[in-house]
Design a protein that fits this description.
- The structure holds 3 protein chains of 3 kinds.
- By secondary structure, chain A is α/β, with parallel strands linked by helices.
- In chain A, α3 packs across α12.
- Chain A contains 22 helices and 10 strands.
- Chain A folds into 3 domains: 120 residues, no CATH class; 199 residues, NagB/RpiA/CoA transferase-like (Rossmann fold), CATH 3.40.50; 80 residues, no CATH class.
- By secondary structure, chain B is of the alpha/beta class.
- The mean pLDDT of chain B is 95.
- Chain C is globular and about 50 Å long.
- Classes of the chains: A alpha/beta, B alpha/beta, C alpha/beta.
- Chains A and B meet through α2, α3, α4, α8 and α10 of A and α1, α5, β9 and β10 of B.
- β9 of chain A pairs antiparallel with β9 of chain B.
Amino acid sequence: MRKMTRDFRANAEEACQDAPLRGILDHATRYFQGKRAAALSAFPGRDDHFARARAARLNALSRLPQLLEELEKNATAAGVHVHWASNGAEASSIVCDIARENGVRVVVKGKSMITEEIELNTALQQAGAEVWETDLGEFIVQLAGESPSHIIAPAIHKSRAQVADLFREKLGLVAEGKSDDIPELTRLARVALREKFLAADMGVTGVNMAVAETGSVILVENEGNIRMSTTCPPVHVAVMSIEKVVATLEDAADVLRALPRSATGQRMSSYVSVFTGPRKQGESDGARQMHLVILDNGRSKVLADPVLAEALLCFRCGACLNSCPVYQTIGGHAYGWIYSGPIGALLGSLLLPPEETRDTPYGCTLCGACAKTCPLGIDHPKMLLALRQRSAADKGNIFGTMHSFLARHPLAYRASVAVAGAVDPQLNLLPRLPGFAGAARFAQSRRLPELKKPFSARLRARQKIRADQGFHAEKENEK
Amino acid sequence: MSRDVILSALRAAQAASPITVPAPPARPLSQPVDAEAWDRLRAVLEPLDVHLRLARTPEEAAHFVADIARERGAKSYLRWESMPANVDVDAALSGLNRVFPESAVDGRPCPKLGQVDLGITGAHAALVDSGSIVAVAGPDTPRAASLLPAVHLCLLPRAALLPDVSALPGILNSHRDANGNLPSCLNLISGPSSTADIELVLVRGAHGPVAVEIIGLDWDE
Amino acid sequence: MLEHLGVSTVLPPGQTCCGQLAYKTGDVASARTLALRYLDIFAAPGPVVCPSGSCVKMIHTYPSLFTPGSPEHTRAVELSARTFEFCQFVVDELGQVDLGAKYAARVCYHGSCQVDRALGITVAPRALLSAVQGLELVEAERPERCCGFGGVFSLQFTAVSEALVEDKIREILDTGATLVAAAEPSCLMNIGGALARMGRAMPAVHVAQVLAAGLGLGSLS
């Protein structure tokens, strides 16, 4: 999926005028927020649990290189082949090599943002493998040739009728009875993908958490497609970005206490799988060969940044997306990459080249809903502001420069306001000046405030009147 | 070597801007397992559409197994090698075809497991707070039993009940093998397979079981 | 209002801008310069009161613009500690809630992300309005949701900003209120400006204006 982060502003402006999309987003974000609010209000000790989850993640970031080495050692001892990749191309190459060595023709995949980030599917397909996304939402967007529009529900933007059409057109799957009955469509996907699971040569997943102390990989899901992808095929490849490690099983349990409730309002996701190595002697299922690919892809640079490293705490619950008034209005695709919403704006700005994400930090009203919602206390607005500071350092803006100049020179400030007040009190002409295009657009939907006599001038006039009225008047006013 | 590049970049980052981690609050106490635990479990399972039956004897448990098989119209089943408390599952399901997990040469589960109606397991533990069954994979406890059949039936001994996921490290450690290795796979199963990916309409039975039935074995072992 | 409450006020000359605009567009250097101006302008001791929540927040942010330990930082900390939003000053510093005001109207209070969230001032404005005799206080369905202004955001992402203010106005109108009040002038300009463009007569006014009207000290047209 081609990145379109450069077009963020235009895409955002367009998306908010898409009425059906607005309706879907309104429904979806309210749904998630409702489930989450219900779960959090019935969660004794919630704030302490969230604080512990934050500590577990922060501890991991503070000891990242040590924990990654410990993870490698323990995973290797458990029989996992551990690989390291600096960037996406390298990671994809490693996975393709594993596929080639094992004569892999069919790959089944669990939902994994990191593998989308590195466009692994394309690499595997180019290497001649058939790749099937098996999470229902990802399966749908894969068939549609689109990218996911939400971290938790990738195909939220698709109606049942659109899904029915996709299944019919792309796979020849036709539903019995009512053609867009949702359980029936789900059954079609179940049957079609079960065949793939049982025939697949390799299962590829991401990693929710990798536990350094034991070398374990933990995966969380509701559908069972990750269990299927790691139980049926003989080879399991787990891809993780470096910040996914936690120190201990205790830390992992603390995270599991918080993550499902924050993501979907569940006490626990339907399936949590803790893998420590491939299947053991005598077992009849599970992968015989397990690989863990540890990928940097720009994170080590972020970790070095004292202000922005906090973005790496994220455990992908999606709550910030659902709480963000901008995301609620424009949806995930407008962001132009796989990560959207407040955390997506941060990750995109941190992991992609600056020239591709110039507008991204500005698509935010700094309302703080995200920071308030985040169970891990990530301060998205603070970081977006820091990104604005860095980009402002190398580009100016005429409006801002002018305003700053006037603000430093009160006489000039008062004079320009007085002139504007005399010439254009209703502020009709100002928006038409060059450089004020934004104000022009703003003025189309808001009547601009009328320029009246400044408060300071009115106050001075009133005080003068009082002084002129003399001692007697002053005495009266003191009552 | 990418490994060295990455680790040295991270060590440099660590030295340049170390992160201090304030001590977190103590973990809130878990609600202990007591006489009300089954009731609490039932209450948590209800919104997950999981039905909990309590059996007071192995015979009653076996009856429930037969009932469930009949209600579900099951023709075949797959089970863990040993059933808890010697509940005679095979006798209860004498009319059904028992399928055995034989792997293909390359280790894949045989496709016929994907057509089995009922998968019967015990439980190594269960987490009351989240309604989670804990299943540890092993030669006698295939992963497929709780995953491939349409219905997962779990026989859950009272002694297996634990408060919540904070018990996970202890559970894992108690299942280390003779060499001290952790199990290859531990699953927390909290309800049937589910999805709401199409229009946020909840559907039970995406890729895993459509339904989970639990028979609580409510006696001392 | 302050004079009515017996507070003698001084408007120091030379005030232009607290630097919020520069700061939020990333121009820290200008923000710092403007902050230094304000440190001088408000150097005299005594509380500083402001009817703009966002500007108060900016002044509270001044310390972060300077190196800890520097004289500017010390002055910024000192100024920040005695700068108050208007409602907060009346209720928390003057200890006044019921001012004897009377104003019969259904008033929708817009909390503003700058006041409710950024400053955490949720009680004082609502308390002041609730105490007005005859005033029925209501809130939008999603009172905490941003009105969509966001300063430079409204100039760069105009259509999104418009969509958000339309949502906010719809919720305000749904309350049946005849007036919307807030402690944040930028929201009032945004909401009021949009209401006017839509041809709606509903005034968007500051909490202080409602109180003044209720005391016969001013009018809301």
